[in-house]
Amino acid sequence: MINILIGGDVCPIGRALPFFVSGNVEQNFSDIIKEFSAADFNVVNLECCLIEKNTPIDKDGPVLGVPVACVNGLKKLRVNAVNFANNHCLDHGETGLKKTLEALNKSAILCFGAGMNLQDAGRMIIVNIKDKRIAFLGYAEHEFSIAGIRSGGANPLDITDFIDKLNKYRNKYDFLIVLLHAGKEYYPYPSPRLAKLCHFFAEQGANAIICQHSHCVGCFEIYKGVPIVYGQGNLIFDRPTTKKYWHQGVLVRLKIDDNLKTEVELVPYFQFTKDFPGVKILDLKGNDFMEQFYRRSRDIIYEEFIEQKWIEHCIKEKYTYFSRLYGHNRILRKLNKIFHFTDWVYSKEIKLMIRNVVECESHREVLETLWRLEH
Asked: Are residues 325 and 359 in contact, defined by beta-carbon separation less than 8 angstroms?
């Protein structure tokens, strides 16, 4: 039996920083060290760059980076590989990306999902574990971090690339694990598009699919024999917030037998609460957030439910998104949430024009190309 453990977002800022720089993680992270020690292979999502100096890029959203020495904490946690296909791998430009890749390589920690060009970023890693070839592939949605033909960054989420990879490498591995940095942040369900995408990946040959990025515990399904996790929460990410979901997470243990049949075990925990600067494993039963997790997992077997929850969420976010689309400052965004002036200030013609350039694939490609050329 092969035991692979997958953890969520790791960004050792705040109270986690000194533990990771020094490598003295045994006390505050002993629970997950125990879990990692029992596994054959451990993977986490590295949610920040490992840097020597700040070289931040221009982007919408937080720029994350920690000292290169934080790799000491990753080693002591017994992390074997990191997925770096995410929206923060390029936060400090190609300089930060290169330093991160070098630090991981020197520490014998494998990295996939990002690289100094598109080909490297899309590289599948294949690890021999107990005479089985286990492959890992990472993809990220487009969010200020995507690699180009001659520029570094994350491996972009691309269905055609996924099919090409399967056709090229299918005979070189026995079991494929896909990590997707995708989905709506703080939303504990898959969108209709994400569910459809994961189902397609499963139908084409992925053996397990883990969606990260949402910063909250989501839900889970077995689709045609393939386990799919929609959000596992943060693993190590200290942030001064009272939002419970930020501090909750699950480790995903994949137990693969000789016939490549998969059993999934979930290990719930809380991380960096107000009272404890570390990670504590919880009992599987008796946790409110796990009960909610299982309830959501039962609900998403119905496509109509996924669609309805998504519509409800989008309606709730309507004025936030329209304000962002129209370029409102913080004051106007707050006013729009109260007075909903985007419903009547902009003419029908303007709204239709904006909809067309966003919705139409060819028009959107023009915008994406122009934005890419600007940066």
From this structure: no
Q: In Å, what is the CA distance from 89 to each residue of 34, 212, 227? A: 28, 14, 27
- Residues of the chain above pLDDT 70, percent: 100
> Strand 41-46 and strand 81-83: pairing?
parallel
CA distance 216 to 187: 7
214-225 b/e (C-beta count within 10 Å ≥ 16 → b) = bbbbbbbbeeee
Paired residues of 270 in beta bridges: 248, 280
CB contact at 8 A, 101 and 114: yes
Point out which residues pair with 372 in neighbouring strands: none
Taking only the tens place, the pLDDT of each residue in 265-301 is 999 999 999 999 999 999 877 788 999 999 999 999 9
Contact 213, 182 (CB under 8 A): yes
Residue 191, pLDDT > 90, answer yes
For residues 34, 35, 39, 42, the Cα torsion angle rounded to the nearest 10 degrees is: -110
The answer to whether 209 touches 202, Cβ cutoff 8 Å, is yes
Contacts of 2 (CB under 8 A, 6+ apart): 40, 41, 129, 130, 132, 134, 254, 255, 256, 257
pLDDT-above-90 percentage for the chain: 97
Q: Which domains, from first to last, does the chain contain? A: 2-304 (3.60.21.10), 317-374 (no CATH)
Question: What percentage of the chain's residues is helix, strand, coil (to nearest 5)?
Answer: 40, 25, 35
* Structure tokens belonging to residue 91: 């936060």
Is the pLDDT assigned to residue 147 strictly greater than 80? yes
